[in-house]
C-alpha cells in the first residue's frame, strides 16, 4: 500500500481545473501537427493564457537588451548595445552582490530596486507615501498572495477562515485559498447591459450574509482591472469597497496586475492604495491592504520571468516581522525578474537613445490591443447567439454564449458543461484554444468563453476567421 | 497616511493581529537570513556612510551564495542565457556556435519562442527530457522518466511542495517528518509552517557527522508515541555538516525507510561538491535501483537538485527540479494540481538547468573553457575545505570535522561557562526577535535576568560580527545536541580572504575565551 495514500486533505479537496482535459488535448494536437499529421488547420491558435509573448507579441527590445547585458556583462564592453542600455546594466549590476545576477539578494529583493518600486508607487498614486520596508518582491504576484493568505488563514481554526472572491474569478486564487484549508466565499459581479461588468456592494453584503454560518470571513479579494471580466473600478466603487472592508473588518487583497492593460478610451486606473490614502483618516490609517502587481502582463508580458511584488499597508508591525520571515525562508525572487520589474517602472525617457524604439514598440502594442478589442467585439456582436460586452482593461474578452437547447443537451449527454463542450469542439474543428466560463464561475444557466486579446494583429484576424466560421456552423448544427 | 499609520497603529482595531494570524507561522525561524544578518546589513550601511569600525568590510559567510563571495559564473552558461534573453545576438559572431545551438533549441521550446512566456507548470518538456537523460548518465543507465521530473523555483520550492502534499492528520495521527540535527532550517521552518511534527535524528559528530541507523530507529520509535511518522528527509552531501554519506549508509537508510514504511526525501543539491579523499557522491536513486526490484519497484522517494550550488552557484536564477519515484498515480495527480498554483518555474532558471544537465561535450568549441572553469571552481572549494578544517583544528576550543563536501563548515566551539552565563537573553521567545533591543545589553556588559532561550552561540556570533565584521550563523539555527555550541561558516570567500577570515576567527576565539576565563 502506498505510503502516500494519505495526503493532505486540503490538497485533495482543491478542485482540479475543469480544463485539464482540454489542455491535454491541445498539447496532443500541437504535437500531432508538429509531426506533420494533417488537420483542418496548420497551427493551433492558443489564446487560452494571458500570455502575450506566447501569441507572438515581441518582448520590448530595451528590456531584453538590459537583461542580456546583465546576464553576460561582456556585452557592456562591446559595441553591440545602445549606450543607455549599457549604463543601465552597469548600474543594476552594481546593485547585485559582486556584480552578478547569480547572487542571492535580500529576501524582499534588491534594496535599491525595492526603493525604486516605492518611488514608482508614490508617483503613480499622486504622492501618497509608499515605504520600501512594506514591499516584497516575489516570483510572480500569486506567490506573494499565497504568502499573505498563509498569514491570514488558520487551517485548524473552526469555523474556517473565509476569503471573499469574485465570480467570475481567476481560478488560481481560489485554488490557493482551498489548498490552505480556507473557504472561498463568492460574490457575484454584475454584468450590466452594454456597460460591462461591475462590482456592486450589495453583492458583497449578500456574500457575507451567506457565509455567516459556514466560515469566518477574514479577507476580501478584488481584481482590478478584472480577470476575466475586464472591468475597471471607478473611484466611487473602490471607496465603497474600502468602506465595506472597514465596516466588516476584512483584510483587503487588491490584485492589480492588469493596471497597465487599459484599452478603454476614457478609462483610468486608480489604485486601491491611492483611493485609501485620499479617503483620509480613519480609513487611511486603519484599513489593512495588500496590493499586488507583476511583470507578467501589460506591455512587458514577461510571464516566464516570474516577478511581482506586494505592498502592505497598515499591517500590524508584529505581524510584519513574521511576514518577513516567511519571505526569507522562500529565498529571493529570481534576480532577472527583479530587474525586469525595475525596468518596467523606469523605462527609457525622452532624450534617451533607446527611447524612440521603446516608444514605437509600446505604442504599437497598445494600439494593436485597442484595435483588437474593438474589432473582436464588433465581429462577435454580429454573430448570432454571441454577445461581447465592452471591456476597459485586462488581457481578455469574456463574451457570452447563448447556446441553443440542443447544444446544451448534447453537452449534458457527453458529461460536459455546455461552454466546455463548445471549447472542445472549437479546438478540435477549428484549432482555436480558449477557455470556458465554467472555469471562472458563473451564474447558473449562463455560458461564456474567455480568450486573450493581447495578440498581434495577424493572429487576431486568423482567430476571428476561424471563430466566426466555427460559431456559425455550430449554431446551425444545433438549431 | 502617516508613517506611523503605514507602519501600523496599535493592535486594537486591526483585522490581522498576532492573536488571530496563522499560529503555525509564529513558530517559524530561519536563522540563515535572521536578525544577525539584518544587523550585518545595517553595519554595512554604516560603513558605507563612513562610520568608523574595527574593520573595513562585512564578510557575509552566513549564506551559501557563491557569486556574492566572488566565484565567477560559468562563461558558457551566461552566453547561452544572454542569447535566450536577446535572440538578436544570435546573428553576432561574439558568441560560439555551440552556445547559439543550445539557445535556439531552448527558444524553440518556449511559447512564442520567448523566454518570457509561461511554460507548462511541470516545466518545459524538452528540458525535463534532458534532466532525465542527465540522471540516467549520472546513475549508470538506470532509466529516468521525464514525466517524473518536476522543475521548480529552486530545490526549496519542490521540497516545500512535497511536504505540503504529505503532511496531514490530526493529533496523534499528525504526520511526523524525520530530519537530521543539524539540518538546513528550511526543513524545520516548513514543518513549523505546516504544523507537522519534526522528528529529529542526531548525526554523529564524533564520527564525521555520519548517520547511524540505530539513531534513526531510536528517534522513530520515540516519535511513534505522539505522531504518525511518514517521511524521512536526508541531505547528502550535508548542510551544514558537509558529510558525504557512504554507499553502505545510503543502503541502510533505504532499508530502514522501507521497513518503516517511510517516504524518502533526498536533498542532493550539493552532489557536485565532494572534496574529501575516499568520498564519493552516490545518488539515492542509483543505490535504490542497485538494491534490486524488491526496493526499486516499491520504495517511494523524491530527490532534489538545484542550480544554486555545485560549480555554477547561480542562486539568483532559482533553478531546480525534483524527481519522484514510484508515486501512486492518484498522488501524482494531486501533486500536479499543487504545482499548478505556482503557474510555472522561472524560465531562465529552467534554461540554466538545461545547460547544467547538458553541458558542452568534448567535441564542442566551448568544452575546453567550460572544463577549465568548472575544475577551477571545484578545486578551489576543495582546497578551501581542507584549509578551513586544518586552521580551525589548530585553535584550542574549536574542533572541526573534515569538510567532506557541500559549502560549509560547522565547527564545534567550547565556550567558557562565564560566557554561557552572560549570554542569557531577555527574550520572550527563542527566535531572537527582540535580539536587536538586547544588543545594547550585550554591549554594555550587563546581565539580563534569565528567561527561556539561552543562545550562547548567538552571543558569540554577535560579538564576532561587531568586533571583526564577520557574519556567521550560530549553530542553534541548525540544531545541535544540548550543551554543545557551533557556528556555520561558508568556505566560499576567495582563498586569500578566507585565510584572513580564519585568522580573525582564531584570534577572536582566543580573545573571547580569555575574556571569560
From TrEMBL, chain A:
Keyword Glycoprotein: no
Catalysis performed (reactions): L-alanine + 2-oxoglutarate = pyruvate + L-glutamate
One biological process term in Gene Ontology: L-alanine catabolic process
MF term (GO), any: L-alanine:2-oxoglutarate aminotransferase activity
Cofactor requirement: pyridoxal 5'-phosphate
Xref: Gene3D superfamilies: 1.10.287.1970, Aspartate Aminotransferase, domain 1, Type I PLP-dependent aspartate aminotransferase-like (Major domain)
InterPro entries documented for this protein: ALAT1/2-like, Aminotransferase_I/II_large, PyrdxlP-dep_Trfase, PyrdxlP-dep_Trfase_major, PyrdxlP-dep_Trfase_small
Start and end residues of each Aminotransferase class I/classII large domain: 81-461
EC number(s) per entry: 2.6.1.2
Domain of life: Eukaryota
Subunit structure: Homodimer.
Family, per entry: Belongs to the class-I pyridoxal-phosphate-dependent aminotransferase family. Alanine aminotransferase subfamily.
The protein, known as: alanine transaminase
Species for this entry: Monopterus albus
From TrEMBL, chain B:
Entry-linked InterPro entries: ALAT1/2-like, Aminotransferase_I/II_large, PyrdxlP-dep_Trfase, PyrdxlP-dep_Trfase_major, PyrdxlP-dep_Trfase_small
Domain Aminotransferase class I/classII large: 93-505
Cofactor(s) recorded in Swiss-Prot or TrEMBL: pyridoxal 5'-phosphate
Pathway, per record: Amino-acid degradation; L-alanine degradation via transaminase pathway; pyruvate from L-alanine: step 1/1
UniProt catalytic activity: L-alanine + 2-oxoglutarate = pyruvate + L-glutamate
Gene3D superfamilies referenced in this protein's UniProt entry, alphabetically: 1.10.287.1970, Aspartate Aminotransferase, domain 1, Type I PLP-dependent aspartate aminotransferase-like (Major domain)
GO molecular function: L-alanine:2-oxoglutarate aminotransferase activity; pyridoxal phosphate binding
Keywords, sorted A to Z: Aminotransferase, Pyridoxal phosphate, Transferase
Keyword Transferase: yes
GO biological process per UniProt: L-alanine catabolic process
EC number(s) recorded for this UniProt protein: 2.6.1.2
Subunit field text: Homodimer.
Family: Belongs to the class-I pyridoxal-phosphate-dependent aminotransferase family. Alanine aminotransferase subfamily.
The protein's name in its UniProt record: alanine transaminase
Organism: Monopterus albus (Swamp eel)
Amino acid at each position: 500500500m502506498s505510503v502516500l495514500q494519505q495526503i493532505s486533505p486540503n490538497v485533495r479537496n482543491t478542485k482540479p481545473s475543469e480544463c485539464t482535459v482540454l489542455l491535454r488535448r491541445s498539447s496532443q494536437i500541437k504535437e500531432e501537427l508538429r509531426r506533420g499529421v494533417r488537420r483542418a488547420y496548420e497551427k493551433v491558435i492558443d489564446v487560452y493564457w494571458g500570455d502575450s509573448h506566447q501569441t507572438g507579441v515581441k518582448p520590448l527590445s530595451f528590456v531584453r537588451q538590459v537583461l542580456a547585458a546583465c546576464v553576460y556583462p561582456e556585452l557592456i564592453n562591446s559595441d553591440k548595445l545602445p549606450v543607455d542600455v549599457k549604463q543601465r546594466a552597469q548600474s543594476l549590476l552594481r546593485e547585485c552582490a559582486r556584480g552578478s545576477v547569480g547572487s542571492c539578494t535580500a529576501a524582499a529583493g534588491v534594496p535599491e530596486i525595492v526603493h525604486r518600486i516605492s518611488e514608482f508607487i508614490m508617483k503613480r498614486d499622486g504622492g501618497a507615501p509608499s515605504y520600501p520596508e512594506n514591499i516584497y518582491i516575489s516570483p510572480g504576484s500569486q506567490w506573494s498572495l499565497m504568502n499573505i493568505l498563509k498569514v491570514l488563514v488558520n487551517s485548524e481554526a473552526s469555523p474556517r477562515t473565509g476569503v471573499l472572491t469574485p465570480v467570475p474569478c481567476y481560478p488560481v486564487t481560489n485554488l490557493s485559498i482551498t489548498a490552505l484549508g480556507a473557504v472561498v466565499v463568492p460574490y457575484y459581479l454584475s454584468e450590466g447591459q452594454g456597460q460591462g461588468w461591475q462590482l456592486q456592494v450589495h453583492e458583497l453584503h449578500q456574500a457575507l450574509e451567506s457565509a455567516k454560518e459556514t466560515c469566518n470571513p477574514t479577507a476580501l479579494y478584488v481584481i482590478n482591472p478584472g480577470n476575466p471580466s475586464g472591468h475597471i473600478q471607478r473611484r466611487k466603487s473602490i471607496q465603497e469597497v474600502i468602506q465595506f472592508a472597514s465596516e466588516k473588518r476584512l483584510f483587503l487583497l487588491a490584485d492589480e496586475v492588469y493596471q497597465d492593460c487599459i484599452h478603454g478610451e476614457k478609462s483610468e486606473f486608480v489604485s486601491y492604495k491611492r483611493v485609501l490614502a485620499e479617503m483620509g483618516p480613519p480609513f487611511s490609517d486603519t484599513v489593512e491592504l495588500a496590493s499586488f502587481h507583476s511583470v507578467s502582463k501589460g506591455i512587458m508580458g514577461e510571464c516566464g520571468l516570474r516577478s511581482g511584488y506586494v505592498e502592505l499597508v497598515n499591517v500590524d508591525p508584529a505581524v510584519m516581522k513574521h511576514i518577513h520571515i516567511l519571505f526569507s525562508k522562500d529565498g529571493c525572487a529570481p534576480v532577472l525578474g527583479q530587474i525586469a520589474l525595475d525596468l518596467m517602472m523606469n523605462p527609457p525617457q525622452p532624450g534617451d537613445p533607446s527611447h524612440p524604439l521603446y516608444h514605437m514598440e509600446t505604442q504599437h502594442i497598445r494600439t494593436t490591443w485597442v484595435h483588437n478589442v474593438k474589432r473582436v467585439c464588433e465581429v462577435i456582436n454580429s454573430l448570432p447567439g454571441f454577445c461581447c460586452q465592452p471591456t476597459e482593461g485586462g488581457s481578455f474578452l469574456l463574451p457570452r454564449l447563448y447556446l441553443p437547447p440542443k447544444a446544451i443537451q448534447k453537452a449534458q449527454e457527453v458529461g460536459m458543461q455546455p461552454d466546455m463542450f463548445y471549447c472542445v469542439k472549437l479546438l478540435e474543428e477549428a484549432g482555436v484554444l480558449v477557455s470556458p466560463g465554467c472555469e471562472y464561475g458563473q451564474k447558473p444557466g449562463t455560458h461564456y468563453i474567455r480568450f486573450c486579446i493581447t495578440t498581434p494583429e495577424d493572429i487576431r484576424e486568423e482567430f476571428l476567421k476561424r471563430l466566426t466560421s466555427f460559431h456559425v456552423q455550430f449554431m446551425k448544427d444545433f438549431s | 497616511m502617516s508613517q506611523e499609520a503605514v507602519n501600523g497603529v496599535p493592535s486594537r482595531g486591526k483585522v490581522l493581529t498576532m492573536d488571530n494570524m496563522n499560529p503555525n507561522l509564529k513558530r517559524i525561524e530561519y536563522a540563515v537570513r535572521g536578525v544577525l544578518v539584518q544587523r550585518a546589513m545595517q553595519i554595512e550601511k554604516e560603513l558605507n556612510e563612513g562610520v568608523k569600525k574595527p574593520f573595513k568590510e562585512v564578510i557575509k559567510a552566513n549564506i551559501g551564495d557563491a557569486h556574492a563571495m566572488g566565484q565567477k559564473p560559468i562563461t558558457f552558461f551566461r552566453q547561452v542565457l544572454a542569447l535566450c534573453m536577446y535572440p538578436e545576438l544570435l546573428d553576432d559572431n561574439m558568441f560560439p556556435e555551440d552556445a547559439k545551438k543550445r539557445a535556439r533549441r531552448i527558444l524553440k521550446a518556449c511559447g512564442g519562442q520567448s523566454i518570457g512566456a509561461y511554460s507548462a507548470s511541470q516545466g518545459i518538456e524538452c528540458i525535463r527530457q534532458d534532466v532525465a537523460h542527465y540522471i540516467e548518465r549520472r546513475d549508470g543507465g538506470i532509466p529516468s522518466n521525464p514525466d517524473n521530473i518536476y522543475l521548480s523555483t529552486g530545490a526549496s520550492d519542490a521540497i516545500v511542495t512535497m511536504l505540503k502534499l504529505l503532511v496531514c492528520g490530526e493529533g496523534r495521527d499528525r504526520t511526523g517528518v524525520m530530519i537530521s540535527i543539524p539540518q538546513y532550517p528550511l526543513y524545520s521552518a516548513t514543518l513549523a509552517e505546516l504544523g507537522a511534527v519534526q522528528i529529529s535524528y542526531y548525526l554523529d559528530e564524533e564520527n564525521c557527522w555520519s548517520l547511524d541507523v540505530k539513531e534513526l530507529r531510536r528517534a522513530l520509535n520515540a516519535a511513534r508515541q505522539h505522531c504518525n511518522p511518514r517521511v524521512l528527509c536526508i541531505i547528502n552531501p550535508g548542510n551544514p555538516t558537509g558529510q558525504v554519506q557512504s554507499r553502505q549508509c545510503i543502503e541502510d537508510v533505504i532499508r530502514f525507510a522501507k521497513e518503516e514504511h517511510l517516504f524518502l526525501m533526498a536533498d542532493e543539491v550539493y552532489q557536485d561538491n565532494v572534496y574529501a579523499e575516499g568520498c564519493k557522491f552516490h545518488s539515492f536513486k542509483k543505490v535504490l535501483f542497485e538494491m534490486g526490484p524488491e526496493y526499486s519497484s516499491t520504495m517511494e522517494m523524491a530527490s532534489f537538485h538545484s542550480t544554486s550550488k555545485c560549480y555554477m552557484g547561480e542562486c539568483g536564477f532559482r533553478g531546480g527540479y525534483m524527481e519522484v519515484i514510484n508515486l501512486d498515480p492518484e498522488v501524482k495527480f494531486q501533486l500536479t494540481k499543487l504545482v499548478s498554483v505556482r503557474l510555472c518555474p522561472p524560465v531562465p532558471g529552467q534554461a540554466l538547468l538545461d545547460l547544467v544537465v547538458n553541458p558542452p561535450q568534448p567535441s564542442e568549441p566551448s568544452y575546453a573553457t567550460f572544463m577549465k572553469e568548472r575544475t577551477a571552481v571545484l578545486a578551489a572549494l576543495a582546497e578551501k575545505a581542507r584549509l578551513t578544517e586544518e586552521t580551525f583544528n589548530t585553535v584550542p576550543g574549536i574542533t572541526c570535522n573534515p569538510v567532506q563536501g557541500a559549502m560549509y563548515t560547522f565547527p564545534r566551539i567550547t565556550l567558557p561557562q562565564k560566557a554561557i552565563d552572560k549570554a542569557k537573553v531577555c527574550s520572550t521567545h527563542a527566535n531572537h526577535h527582540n535580539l536587536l533591543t538586547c544588543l545594547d545589553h550585550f554591549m554594555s556588559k550587563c546581565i539580563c535576568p534569565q528567561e527561556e532561550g539561552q543562545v550562547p552561540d548567538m552571543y558569540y556570533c554577535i560579538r564576532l560580527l561587531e568586533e571583526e565584521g564577520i557574519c556567521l550563523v550560530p549553530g542553534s539555527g541548525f540544531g545541535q545536541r544540548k550543551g554543545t555550541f557551533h557556528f556555520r561558516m561558508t568556505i566560499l570567500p576567495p582563498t586569500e580572504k578566507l585565510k584572513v577570515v580564519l585568522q580573525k576567527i582564531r584570534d577572536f576565539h582566543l580573545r573571547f575565551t580569555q575574556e571569560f576565563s
